[in-house]
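hey m, so remember when u said the C-alpha cells were messed up on ur end? i reran from scratch. heres the input so u can diff it against urs
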Amino acid sequence: MNWITNYVRPKINSMLGRREVPENLWIKCPETGEMVFHRDLEENKWVIPASGFHMKMPAKARLKDLFDDGVYEALPQPKVAQDPLKFRDSKKYVDRLRDSRVKTDLEDTIVAGVGRVQGVKLVGVVHEFNFMGGSLGMAAGEAIIKAFEKAIAEKCPLVIFPASGGARMQEGILSLMQLPRTTVAVQMLKEAGLPYIVVLTNPTTGGVTASYAMLGDLHLAEPGAEICFAGKRVIEQTIREKLPEGFQTSEYLMEHGMVDMVVKRHDIPTTLARVLKILMKKPADAAKLNGSTPLAALPIAAAASV
C-alpha cells in the first residue's frame, strides 16, 4: 500500500476542495492530434469538427440518432449458452463477458430496434465495438437473426451498422457457425421482397465481412472506414509487397466497386430514408439525395430494384 498516494493525497485534495478530472474529458483526433472536448464531440455525432474524422459511435447513441426524435422499440437480447467451451486464455471468457457488460451496460455486442426514419419504418441493427471488439458470437448471431425475423414480420426493411473485428475466438466453431446462419437470415429477408442495406463503419473486418456485411442490396460506408477480411499488415507480410495508399478504406472500395456510396454520418438518416423510399416504390420527398446527388445518379444496385 502506498501511504502517500492512497491516504495523504486524497486527504489534501478533500481539504482543498480539489476534484478529480475524468480521463475522457478531452478526446484526441487520431488524424490531426487535435484535442476536442468530449461534449462537443458527442453533439457533433462523434465526428471531429475540424478534420471530419469519424470516431467510433456508441451503439445506443447511433440508434437514437438514426430514428426520428430518437424514438424506437428496443428488441430484446436472446438468451444463449454462456461460455459453452469453458474457454480461457490469459483471462476466463466469463470474466471478459462480465467486464464488457459493466463497461458498456449491454448484454452483448448487438443492439437492435424498430422505429421510423423520416417516416420510413425499419429495423436497425448496430454493433457495439466496445463490447469485445464487436465480435460475432452466439449471442450476437442470434440477435441478428431475431432482428431479421422481426423485419419480415413487420414487413419493413432492415439496416445494419457493422463494426467488428470478426468472429469471437472464445466460442470457436460455434462462432463461425453464425456466418451461415446470418446468411440464411439475409436470404429470408430478400425472399420476402424487403430491402437490406448495410452501412459499413470503422472497422468492419473478419468473419463479419465474410458474411452479412457484404450481402446488402446497397452498401453505404462512412468516410475513412477500414473494410476488409484480413488487415493490411497481415497481407503485406504474407505477399511481401507494399499495398496501395488508402487500401481497404471505404473510398478505395467504392472506387473498385465493393461499396456503392460513401456517406458522412450526418447525412446517413436522410440518405437511408430516400434510398428506401426508392427501393420500396414510395414517393420521394425531394429530387436530390444528400442535397447534391440526383436520384438518377444512384448506384446500379439501387436503380435495378426500382
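this time it looks ok to me. The CA atoms of residues 31 and 53 lie 7 Å apart. if urs says something different then somethings off w ur setup not the seq
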